[in-house]
Amino acid sequence: MPIGDEMKILLAEQMKRKGLSYRQLEILTGISKSTLCNIATGKRIPRMDTMEKLAEHLHVRIEDLYESECK
After folding, report:
1. CATH code where residue 47 lies
2. 41 inside domain
C-alpha cells in the first residue's frame, strides 16, 4: 500500500546524508534490503518499531525520517 501525500518517508535522504547504502543499513538494523528499499520508495509503510530502529542506527530523531503537514 503506497503512502499517501500526507506523509513522506525520508529514509533515502537520511541514508545519503550518512553515506550509507541499503546493504550497510541492512547489516546495521537487521531490516532486509528489499524492505528498506520499499520503505524508501513509499511502497511500504514502516511500523513504529521499524522507525525507531532506523532512527537509532541513523542517529536521527524519528521526526527526521518523515515529512508531514501534521508534524
Report:
1. 1.10.260.40
2. yes
* Average pLDDT per block of 10 residues along the chain, 71 residues long: 65 97 98 97 94 97 88 53
**Is 71 inside any structural domain?**
no
Number of Cβ within 10 Å of residue 7's Cβ equals 15
pTM of the predicted model, to two decimals? 0.84
Distance, in Å, from the CA atom of 56 to the CA atom of 54, rounded to the nearest integer, reads 5
Distance CA 61, CA 48 (A): 12
Residue 51's domain comprises 7-65
For the record, the C-alpha cell of 56 comes out as: 537509532
CA distance 18 to 34: 19
Dihedral angle, C-alpha 4, 29, 56, 69, nearest 10 °: -10
